[in-house]
Amino acid sequence: MKYQDLPITGRVWQWRRFSFRLSLRNLLVCCCLLVLALVLGCYAMTVGRLPIGIPQVLAALSGSGDEGIFGHVIRNIRLPRVLVALFVGAALGVSGAIFQSISRNVLGSPDIIGFTTGAASGAIMQIVLFDGGTLQVVIWSLAGGMLTALLVYLLARQGGAVRGYRLILTGIGVGAILSAFNGLLLVKGDLDNSIMANLWLSGTTAARSWDHAIPVIVGVIVLLPLVLLGAHRLNLMEMGDDLARQLGVPVERMRLLMLFAGVMLAAVATSATGPIAFVALAAPQLVVRLTAGRGVPVMGAALMGACLLILADLFTQLMPVGITVPVGRMTGIIGGIYLLWLLTRTRQI
Q: Which residues, in sequence order, are CB contacts of 103 under 8 Å at separation 6+?
């Protein structure tokens, strides 16, 4: 394996037919975000009605602690919640990076385009109409997200290709219809199931178990390498479909593949916590501003999304006078402020 120095982009390692570009600044930012996510995750496991210190958390995680109440609380209650927050944030961050690249617009986020709403529609149907369990909610959420993505893609397709603005506007329209449909389900469904679905719609990491954590962990582990392999072609597609075709990129096939990966990540994240706003929109943009880099920031967006969501979850737990705010509502408030700031700072919209 060898590398060469580039004046702007950093270093490129080459091995046979494969090459890997590495920016030292990107690496430093990603390492800092990884350390921050781990520190916040460990601290989050000390927060709760039962006071637990960092040494007890580390002992329980390493298996050297006792099997008493502390070990049970850490491994079966707080650890699943922390892992859900970290991996849901990572999934949303990568999904946002994919859709912002495909649409070539900073508003290309799954919660704005409507894919998250579609995943929520599938989950709400299962909760309200069939009173399903966690696995059923995950499956219906994935199905709802995929059907929504297929509908938006077909409606946005024009002249054999999908344009960024058309994708966003079509997604907003479909998302508005599905949002009204979700409200109708809540009104017409059984009272208890509707209350449960309404709580789920607020977006929360509370009372998450391993049944919620495992699907989103598996989803991120399976789909993240796929996105990393396709990131280079996404970078070429951002220069224009015609130029990308000349460079050998199968544009529509690649767009469909990345669309599938982005929707699956958003849907599996939504199935674990309910709709979470802001993270998919902000994580890629924040990483780009920190690294001053170009291209699709896949790993950076994943780590930034994880940090944002675990930080928001900690903030909701540490609010004064016992105020309980679902993390989805908190990220929605922050996201609205961020979106207004973004609209005043960019000329892409």
A: 113, 164, 165, 167, 168
For residues 121 and 115, the answer to whether their CB atoms sit within 8 Å is no
3 state DSSP class of 7: coil
- For 260-296, b/e burial (b = at least 16 CB within 10 A) is bbbbbbbbbbbbbbbbbbbbbbbbbbbbbebbebebb
- Is residue 9 included in any domain, yes or no? no
* Cβ–Cβ under 8 Å, residues 308 and 330: no
Answer for the pair 310, 37: CB distance below 8 angstroms, yes or no.
yes
pLDDT 10s digits, 284-298: 988 988 887 777 888
**Distance between CA atoms of 73 and 6, rounded to whole angstroms?**
50
Supply the CATH number for residue 164's domain: 1.10.3470.10
**Which residues form the domain of 309?**
37-341
Find, among 97, 84, 22, 27, the residue nearest to 286 by Cα: 97
285 alpha carbon, distance to own chain's centre: 13
287 belongs to a structural domain: yes
Residue 16, in any domain of the structure:
no
pLDDT tens column, 110-158: 888 888 888 888 888 888 888 777 788 888 988 888 898 888 888 888 7
| pTM for this prediction | 0.86
Give Cβ neighbours of residue 36 (< 8 Å, ≥ 6 apart). Answer: 307
**Cβ neighbours of residue 35 closer than 8 Å, sequence gap 6 or more:** none
In a domain, 27, yes or no: no
Domains of the chain: total: 1
